[in-house]
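U., I forgot to send this yesterday:
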Amino acid sequence: MKQLLKVVKKGVFSSLQDNGRYRYRRFGIPTAGPMDQLSFELGKKILGNKENSTALEIFYGGVSFLSLAKHEYVLVGADMKATVNGKPVEPWKTFILNVDDLLELNVSTEGSIAYLMALGGFNTNSVLNSTSTYLKANLGTVIKKDTILYGKSDLPDVLKYRTGLYKSFIPNISDCVKVRVTPSYHLSYFIEEDVDHFFQSEYQLTNGDRMGYYLQGPLMRMKVKKELLSEPTMFGTIQIPPNGQPIILMADAQTVGGYPTVGKVVEEDLWKVAQLRYGNRISFEYQPIRNTTDSVRFEKDE
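Result:
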């Protein structure tokens, strides 16, 4: 392994993430992986990294790194107004750090998550077939001051040409988003008027982390209070706790839960949720479950 970066300032929260830890949910271990899958995948393509390479996921910025070797990187996701030795770095385009360069990411003003990706990916220990950090189970590397981030020594340090993403292909991060929701059968447990309000109103993000985003807006009330059996949950499940305010479960969320659910945010819209900042607004669009028999032609035996 090759030493690439030393953490000078750790910021709010950063974690190493690959595609995620699959096939262990039945043991109660979340998948983890990137919160903003879209930016994560685009960053890998910009660098030409392998499918399951590891990146550093950074919440809100306020981090800085000292370069320990010449190497190439890209920053994607929320624009954190990064600088190298005080000079601006353009996001979504590769850049080179030389020995003793200081990379600084300021606090983001639009979006909440950025990914720092190294050519070839960061190199760290794999646990249960993944390098993704899940701190609740002490899986992965804890990022703190003086942590060393490593790369792979058998790969090139830099590309022959700088690469990047055309502006028209860069995801548009907004402080007000609408996402599609596939409904849960629990919808019938809620007062009809509240369900209508849920799909016609805006909610505000008030708190959250990699486990869940907490929203505030019109209440969701059950017709009759009842005990529910715990059921499987996943990234994007929208739960309604007793206070009636929705929680969107995120990448590190528990694998089962006993709260009633409204539905699940469709996979393609999860990145929009992940990039919300405290105070940002979100609304929901009802996405009907397609009846797979609609397009099936049945033939009668003659």
